[in-house]
Amino acid sequence: MRKIICLVIFCCAVLSWGRAAEKVLLELQGDFLAYSYDHNQIYGEGLTFTFGPYSVSCQRLKIDLASRAFYAFGDVEVESVDKTFHADEFFFNPQEQRALLVTYTEEFQIQVIGEGGEESPSLPRGVLEDISLSQIRQSFLYFTCHTVQVTEDFQVLGEGVVLYLEGFESVGFKKFKLSSGLKQRMSGFSLDKIWFTKSQGLIIKGSHLIRSGDKVNSLTQVNYEERSVLKNYTGPDRQLDLLNSTSLLLGKGSNLSLAGNYNTSGLWNASLVWNRRWGERVNTSFDFSYNKPINYRGEAWFGVMSTVSGGKYGELSVSGRYELQNQFLGNLIYGNTFLNNFNLLLNTTYSRIKIVGSDEFSEILTGGLSLAYNSRIFNLSTDYYLNYDLFGSQLLSQPQLRFGINPFSFYGGILIASLTNVFIYNHLVFNDTHDSNYSNNVIFSLSTQPIYFRKNIFFSINVSAEQFLEKENRNFTSGGFIGNLTYEVVRGLFLEGFYSLQSRRRTRNWLIEGTTNQDLSALVRLNPSPALNTWISVSYDPKNAEWRQSFADISFEIIKKWRFHSLFHYDFMLDKLNNVDLYLVREAGRFQLRFVYRSLSKQFVVELIPR
Amino acid sequence: MNRIISLPAILLTIGFMGSCLSFRIQPPAEPENQVESIVLCKTIEQREDLLFPGESLVEFNPAEGPIHCYVRLKYVSRAIRLRWKWYAPGGGLFRETKEVTVNRDLVYLETVTASDHIAFEQEEYEEGRWTVVILVNGDLIGRRTFQLAGD
User: Fold this and answer.
1) Domain-by-domain residue ranges, chain A?
2) I need a labelling partner for A593 at 20 to 30 A (CA). Which of A262, A282, A432, A600 fits?
3) Which residues contact A119 (CB under 8 A, 6 or more apart)?
4) Is the pLDDT higher at A476 or at B2?
5) Which of A259, A215, A63 is nearest to A149 (CA)?
6) At residue A59, does pLDDT exceed 70?
7) Category of A393 on φ-ψ map: left (φ > 0), alpha (ψ -120 to 50) or beta
8) Are A501 and A521 within 8 A, CB to CB?
9) Closest CA to A339 of A374, A382, A384
10) What's the fold here for domain A23-177?
11) Is the pLDDT reported for residue A114 higher than 90?
12) Nearest-CA residue of chain B relative to A10?
C-alpha cells in the first residue's frame, strides 16, 4: 500500500511539472487583467505585450478564446526595431502572426501586418461587444491579476492571481491555471490518470504520442488495473490493455492507418487500412484485420470497399470482405435522383458467416428497392424488401406502397388537411409452406389556424381519423378531436382550455367494440418577461366526472443569473402530491451549476454540467 | 528504499504546491472610466440625472427618426472628455462632435451617462453599414456598427 501511495505522489509531481512546461503563445502585462472561466474571455487595461517582432501597448484589450478573437484598442502603439505604427484598433491573430490596424481620422484607415492578409481588408464586424468588465464580474468564477499567459493550446495561466467565486474574493495564487483550453496533445509521454477506489483498485492510464508534421500521427495508450489490493475480489489480480492507433499520410489522396489492441486476458486484434482517392469521384479502401477473441479461434479478414460519385448517374458503393475460413460479406448500394422528383435506392447484401460454436455457416441474402416520387401536392413511394435465408430455406418478401397528400390549406387558408395511406404485403415461404398477409392503414387529419373571436381570444381545433384493415380482420377505426381556447387576460397572462375526445373502435364482421376517452384541461400561463415563466394545469375527465391530475412548472430568476425552477405533480386519483422536483440553477457561460432535489428518489444532487 | 523514493516525491509535491499558493496577493486596483454599456437605439429617456436607452438595435430606418449612440461609464473621479465620430459605409467621416467635458468638479461619480445622435433629411443618407466610435480623452473606448436601410 505504501508503494502505491509513493507512486501516486511521485506521478502527480511529474504530471504537474510536465503540464507546467507548456509553450506560451501570448503573454500580457497590464495594470489590470481579468479572466472569466465561465465565458473563456479576457479583459485588460493599460497593457503591453509582444506580437512577433513587435512590441505592442494599448489602453484596453478584449480576448474571446472560444472564437480566437484578439482585439486591442485605444492609443495602440505597435513598435518594431525599424518601424512604429499608431492606431485606434489592433485586431491580431498570434497563431498566424497576422494583424489589422485601424485608425479613425477623416476616414477610417486599415493597414495589414503580416503575410497572407487580404489586399483590401474590410472593417471587422461586431468587435467582441459583449465583453466588458461588468460582465466578467458577473461570472461565477473569474480571476484578476497583472500578468496572463495564453498557451499554444489556448489555456490561460495567471500570475499573482486573486480568484473570485460568485463575486467573493478567495485566496491568492502566485501562478494559476483556470481554463481547460483546447485538448491538443503535444508529442511525448503523458500520464493521464491515476485513480484508486475501494471497488476498482488502482487504475493507471498513460499514453505516448508521436507526431511528425501532418504525415505521422501515432498514439499508444496503456491502461493498467491493479486489483490485488482489493478485499474479496475473485477476478484476475491485474490487467493490462495496450492500444495503438497510427496514421501515415503517404501522399496526395493516399493514407495508411494501423490500429492494434492487446489485452492480458487473452484477446487481441489488429487492422491495417489503406485509403486511396482516385480523382474527385472515386474512393477505394483496402483493409486487413485479425481478431482473436477469448476462447475462440481467430479470424483474418481481407476487404475492399469503393465508392463512386457519378454525379447525375448516381452514387454507387461496393464492398466485399473475405475471411480465411471461407466466410464472406458483400454489399452493393446505388442511389440516384432523376427528373428532379424521383428518388431511387437499391441496397443488397450477401453474407456467409460461421455459426458460433459449430462448423456450419449461415447464408443470408437481403435486398431492398425503393422508388419515391415527391411533388408539391402529393408523394408516392414503393418499396420492395427481400430477405432470403439460404441456410434455413426461408424467404420473406415485403412490397409496400405509400401514398400521401401533402398538407394543403383551403377555405381562405383557415383549414389545413393531409392524408396518408400505407399498404404492406408480406409473403413468407418456409420449406414448402406459403403464408401471406396484408394490411392497409389510412390517416386523415384536419386542423384550423387560430380563429380570433377578439384580439386576445382565439380558438383552434384538430380532427383526425385513422382506419387500419388487415387480412385477419383485426380492424380498427380511431378518431379524435382536440379543441384549444386561449384568452390573454393581460400581457403575459394567459388562460387556456383544452378539450380532447379520442375513440378507438375494433370492428369484426358485425361486432363493434371499443373505448372512448375524454379530457378537459385548464391551464394558467404567466410569462410577462424572461425572468418569470410559470404555468399551472389541471385536468378533468368529463366521461367519468372525476378530477385527474395537476401539474405546475414554476421558473423565475432570483439574483445574478441564479434561477429557481420547480416541477410539481398532484394526482387527484391517489389524492397525493406525486412528485416534486426543485432546481436551483446558476448559468455560468460554458457550464451550469445545479442543485437538484427529487422527491421520487428522495435525492439531493449537485451537478456541474458542461455546456 | 521506500523512504528514498517517497522523500523526493514529497519534496517535489510540496515544492510545486508551495509555488502555487499565496495568501498575500493584493488584487489589482479597480480601473476607472469603465465602459458598462454602449447602445444604439431610437429613443433616450431621462430619469433624474441619468439617461436610459431604448431597445438596443443594429438596423435602422432613417425615416423613423434619429439614431442615438448611448454610453454608460462607471467609476469616474477625474474630468473626462467625450467625443463621438460617425462614419458612413464608404469610410468617410459623417459627423464628429466637439469634446464634451464631464466631471469638471472632480467629484467621484459612480455612473456617467451620455449620448449623441444623427438624423437625416429625407433620402440624404447612404445605405449600408455605418460605424460609430466613442473616444474618452482622445482614446477609443468602444465602437458599434449598424445597418442603415430605407423602406
Assistant:
1) 23-177
2) A600
3) none
4) A476
5) A63
6) yes
7) left
8) no
9) A374
10) lipopolysaccharide transport protein A fold (2.60.450)
11) no
12) B9
Q: Are A107 and A123 in contact (CB under 8 A)?
A: no
Q: Which residues of A touch B84 (CB under 8 A)?
A: none
Q: Is residue A13's pLDDT more than 90?
A: no
Tens-place pLDDT, residues A560-581: 789 999 999 999 999 999 899 9
Domain ranges of chain B: 34-148
Establish, for the pair of chains A and B, how many residue pairs have beta carbons separated by less than 8 Å: 120
**Does A134 sit within 8 Å of B23, measured CB to CB?**
no
Beta bridge partners of A536: A524, A552
Which of the four pLDDT bands, split at 50, 70 and 90, describes residue A41? very high
The C-alpha cell that represents A552 in the structure block: 405546475
The vertex-A426 CA angle with A425 and A428, nearest 5°, equals: 155
Q: What gap in Å lies between CA A269 and CA A84, rounded to an integer?
A: 61
The three three-digit cell numbers of residue A599, written as one number: 422527491
On whether the CB atoms of residues B21 and A171 are closer than 8 A, the answer is yes
Q: Considering chain A, what is the average pLDDT of its residues? A: 88
The answer to whether the beta carbons of residues A439 and A471 sit under 8 Å apart is: yes
Q: Give the 3-state secondary structure of residue A312.
A: helix
Distance (Å, rounded) from C-alpha B83 to C-alpha B88? 17
Residue type, A423: F
- Distance (Å, whole) CA A566 – CA A552: 8
**Are B73 and B81 a contacting pair, CB within 8 Å?**
no
B36: chain A residues, CB-CB within 8 Å: 132, 134
CATH code matching the domain that covers B34-148, chosen among 2.60.40.1930, 3.90.25.10, 3.30.750.24, 3.90.1010.10: 2.60.40.1930
- Cβ atoms of A419 and A404 within 8 Å: the answer is yes
Asked if the model's pLDDT at residue A391 lies above 90, the reply is no
Torsions phi, psi for B62 (to 5 deg): -60, -25
pLDDT digits (tens, 9 = 90+) for A344-387: 999 999 999 998 878 889 999 999 999 999 998 999 999 999 99
Residues A157/A151, Cβ–Cβ less than 8 Å: yes
How many CB atoms within 10 Å of residue A228? 10
What residues in B contact A2, CB-CB < 8 Å? Answer: 2, 6
pLDDT digits (tens, 9 = 90+) for B75-107: 999 999 999 999 999 889 999 999 999 998 899
pLDDT of residue B3: 57
pTM above 0.90, yes or no: no
Amino acid found at B21: L
Closest-CA residue in chain A for B8?
A10
